[in-house]
């Protein structure tokens, strides 16, 4: 039996996560290695390694959540653009990177902050949750 991915461990509450979205199929939480403040990962609850292996409905739902979270991130951080990346090399569990696209350099995960301030991550989560709620998605926003 394969060991659960780190994302499954976060989803299951075995590891901490700063969640901004939870529904029956997907979650979104802040990454611990952001390229910019407000960098969120949108992750299916189902543990699938490669994005092209998701069934079409699951991928459509993940994309829908990423778009809604992206609107909230853009609002919360007054970003000129929102970045969306599917890299899939760091963790063997599909995840979409959603982040303020401040410059072309923010699209390079090699530029991620490996030691972000926990208070800054907490603040980003609060800002995104607040924005999601004000955009009408409050039913999917966890309290913390």
Describe the protein in words.
By secondary structure, this protein is an alpha+beta fold. The protein has one domain (6-94, 108-135): HIT family, subunit A (2-Layer Sandwich), CATH 3.30.428.10. The protein is 33% helix and 16% strand. The protein contains 3 helices and 5 strands. It has helices spanning 6-11, 56-77, 118-137; strands at 19-22, 26-30, 40-44, 82-85, 96-100. Strands 1-2-3-5-4 form a 5-stranded antiparallel β-sheet. The longest helix is centred in the middle third of the chain and has 22 residues, at 56-77. It is globular. The mean pLDDT is 95.
List low-confidence stretches. none
Separation, N- and C-terminal Cα atoms: 32 Å
CATH topology descriptor:
HIT family, subunit A
User: Tell me, what is the CATH class?
Assistant: Alpha Beta
Q: How many DSSP-defined strands?
A: 5
Count of folded domains: 1
| Overall mean pLDDT | 95
- Across the major sheet, the strand order is 1-2-3-5-4
Figure out the total of helices. 3
Q: Please name the CATH architecture.
A: 2-Layer Sandwich
